Amino acid sequence: MTYNSLKLNRQSYRLKNYDYSSEGLYFVTILTKNRERLLSEIINEKVHLSDIGNFLERQWLNTPSIRSNFEVHDYVIMPDHFHGIVQIKSTNNTDKNALNQFKSPSNTIGSFIRGLKVSVIKDIKNWNSLKSEDKIES
What we know:
Blueprint: H1 5-8, E1 24-31, E2 40-43, E3 46-49, H2 51-66, E4 70-77, E5 81-88, H3 109-137
Antiparallel strand pairs: 1-5, 2-3, 4-5
Helix pairs in contact: 2-3
């Protein structure tokens, strides 16, 4: 099966040939599938997180204890998307000019986002299984 970005209606905003494992600050945005309002609701101009929004917030704030080379900064959780600033603190590379230097894919922004999403999905699955057990016991 070949990849067709037009068919999936996805557009990459990444810069070609940019090293997304470079130290620095990155502004990230994550959208819910089909822009479903799963993360929060706004009541009287105040954001109220849903359970899923709370899972996302907890995993975001827990990042430094899991991924020592990342630091998280300001963030906002909206009903159908999330914005945050994440920092890659260190690439753990001693010689930046070394030829054919191996760079771990776990130090990239892409791997950070994947890890964050996987952590939130695990929380949702655990939450759903606990809700199912409660229904069985009732």
